[in-house]
Amino acid sequence: MEEIERLERRIEELSDAIERSRRLRLAGRISAVAGPALVAGFALGLVAYTPARMVVALALAIGGVVLMGSSRSSTEELERALRRAEAERVAAIDALDLVDLSDRTG
User: Fold this and answer.
1) For residue 105, is it left (φ>0), alpha (ψ between -120 and 50) or beta?
2) What is the pTM of this model?
3) Which residues contact 34 (CB under 8 A, 6 or more apart)?
4) Residue ranges per domain, the chain?
5) What residues have CB less than 8 Å from 32, skipping those under 6 apart?
6) N or C: which terminal CB in the chain sees fewer CB atoms within 10 Å?
7) What radius of gyration, in Å, describes the C-alpha atoms of the chain?
């Protein structure tokens, strides 16, 4: 039973970590789009150009792509760990050899 409880906690932790990783991936996507959009704004004259803004735009674009890729890898790794923990939990429950009481008549 302690092993099942440990696995339940692990599954919950992994689920939370997956959600955080997905949020980071979304932030990466937003940044990867915002940077080039800012550069396009410079080119079209919609945004006043300054060197500092150009650095920010490039940092957003590059950082967004890196964050997106890193978060994708992390999410995939966490999802694999979650599937393993769920399989271990099922195996631990099956090992308890529980008795089905629903077949008994009162």
Assistant:
1) beta
2) 0.72
3) 57, 60, 61, 64
4) 2-94
5) 60, 61, 64, 65, 68
6) C
7) 24
